[in-house]
């Protein structure tokens, strides 16, 4: 059996990324005819057309879509193996990192993270963007460097994840609310008027499932997409918000919080990134900063990785 030409993987990766022989040739600094010849060899080797003409561009076949992630990862791993080792000089590092988080993260962990980064690498700038969904596409296309969130079915299978902290849902009301005094029972909690929090606008959730065995049901009078809006409404009314405890610590200042009177599973908030950045020294350093800042006080360390 002949040894495959592994250079074809680089060409295929670029063709799948660009969908154009001309653009792939430009990025690889080769002639369009050389790319066309490589595509012909790829078709012969795989037994599949891989890319077919659609108007003025090329579109991938189902086989090409199946190979895309694997090919991209192989090329990235090869580049990482051949890349010379770098000595990271944080004081001279000039770079902007984009972090995608749900609301509450910046308010609670942002100040400490910015202070840490500013002290160690003054040339580094952090850009925080909101996380409207769990789609991993921003990590894949490099528009986001790091993300925080709960790993779920829609998280890309190739995405790296490392636990940051465990959280739990708590009830929150204004200081003068009736639930700020006395024991909170399932019936007493359910009897109040509630704020639903759902990015998809759902009017039922895990809390309602936990109340169901008691024969209880919440009266949800309004639904919002985020924690900040829920807490703002609860602060100015007799409505009850139920939000993650650690994620909303500073947002809940001046309000009364209480443990939910039903059993709810804890939430693991993780740090997410694309594997192409695994070995990047600056990215590894930033991951360490985020982990340390998010760690419980008794678990903080200077470990990097």
Give the total of domains.
3
Q: H/E series, N to C?
A: HHHEEHEHEHEEEHEHEHEEEH
Question: For this structure, what is the CATH homologous superfamily of the largest domain?
Answer: Periplasmic binding protein-like II
* The CATH class of the largest domain: Alpha Beta
Major sheet, described briefly?
A: 5 strands, mixed
Average pLDDT score: 88
CATH topology of the largest domain: D-Maltodextrin-Binding Protein, domain 2
The shape is: elongated
Q: In the CATH classification, which architecture of the largest domain applies?
A: 3-Layer(aba) Sandwich
- Helix % is 25-40%
H/I helix tally: 10
What's the Cα radius of gyration?
25 Å
Order of strands in the sheet with most strands = 4-3-5-12-6
Q: Stretches where pLDDT falls below 50 for ≥5 residues?
A: 298-305
Number of strands: 12
SS-based structural class?
alpha/beta
Query: Whole-Å distance between the termini?
Result: 40 Å
Proportion in β-strands: 15-25%
Please tag this protein with its features.
305 residues; alpha/beta; Arc Repressor Mutant, subunit A; D-Maltodextrin-Binding Protein, domain 2; 5-stranded mixed sheet; 3-stranded antiparallel sheet; 10 helices; 12 strands; disordered C terminus
Task: Report on the architecture of this protein.
The protein is α/β, with parallel strands linked by helices. The protein folds into 3 domains: 76 residues, Arc Repressor Mutant, subunit A, CATH 1.10.10; 110 residues, Periplasmic binding protein-like II (D-Maltodextrin-Binding Protein, domain 2); 97 residues, 3-Layer(aba) Sandwich (D-Maltodextrin-Binding Protein, domain 2), CATH 3.40.190.10. The protein is 36% helix and 21% strand. The chain has a 5-stranded mixed β-sheet, with helices on one face. A 3-stranded antiparallel β-sheet has the order 10-7-11, with helices on one face. It has a two-stranded antiparallel sheet with strand order 1-2. The chain is elongated. The two termini are 40 Å apart.
């Amino acid at each position: 059996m002949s040894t495959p030409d592994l250079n074809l993987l680089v060409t295929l990766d670029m063709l799948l990324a660009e969908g154009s022989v001309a653009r792939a040739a430009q990025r690889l600094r080769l002639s369009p005819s050389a790319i066309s010849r490589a595509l012909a060899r790829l078709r012969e080797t795989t037994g599949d057309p891989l890319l077919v003409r659609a108007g003025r561009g090329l579109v991938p076949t189902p086989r090409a879509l199946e190979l895309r992630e694997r090919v991209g990862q192989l090329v990235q791993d090869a580049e990482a193996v051949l890349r010379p080792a770098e000595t990271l000089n944080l004081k001279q590092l000039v770079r902007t990192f984009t972090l995608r988080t749900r609301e509450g993260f910046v308010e609670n962990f942002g100040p400490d993270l910015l202070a840490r980064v500013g002290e160690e690498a003054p040339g580094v700038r952090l850009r925080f963007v909101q996380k409207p969904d769990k789609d991993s596409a921003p990590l894949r296309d490099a528009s986001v460097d790091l993300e925080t969130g709960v790993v779920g079915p829609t998280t890309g299978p190739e995405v790296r994840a490392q636990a940051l902290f465990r959280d739990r849902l708590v009830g929150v009301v204004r200081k003068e609310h009736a639930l700020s005094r006395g024991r909170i029972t399932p019936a007493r909690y359910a009897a109040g008027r509630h704020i639903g929090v759902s990015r998809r606008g759902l009017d039922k959730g895990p809390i309602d499932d936990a109340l169901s065995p008691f024969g209880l049901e919440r009266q949800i009078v309004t639904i919002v997409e985020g924690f900040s809006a829920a807490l703002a409404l609860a602060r100015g009314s007799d409505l009850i918000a139920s939000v993650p405890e650690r994620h909303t610590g500073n947002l809940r200042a001046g309000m009364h919080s209480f443990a939910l009177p039903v059993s709810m599973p804890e939430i693991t908030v993780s740090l997410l990134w694309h594997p192409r950045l695994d070995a990047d020294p600056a990215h590894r350093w930033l991951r360490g900063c985020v982990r340390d800042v998010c760690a419980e006080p008794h678990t903080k360390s200077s470990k990097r990785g």
